[in-house]
Fold:
Amino acid sequence: MLSLTSHTLEKLENLLKSSGYKVRYEKGNFKTGACLLQNSRMIVVNKFSNLESKIQSVIELVRQLEIDTKQLDDKQLAFFHQVKQIELQL
Structure:
């Protein structure tokens, strides 16, 4: 289980950035806390969501995306596998 801290959110952002995705925080009326913009490799996170919602939304996107693990270092790869095994409790 991942802790719901800002450090975890930073690790998720770094994982996505290493995979070629841009992460932005914007206001919006998203049903979830984040969305992928039409395969543009840009993830927009609702900046008004609470930390837990942001983390859960980004984890859900990471689990759905095809991430090239060759671009990740060893720590990021271990974190990626940990994220992939999480059962989300929304």
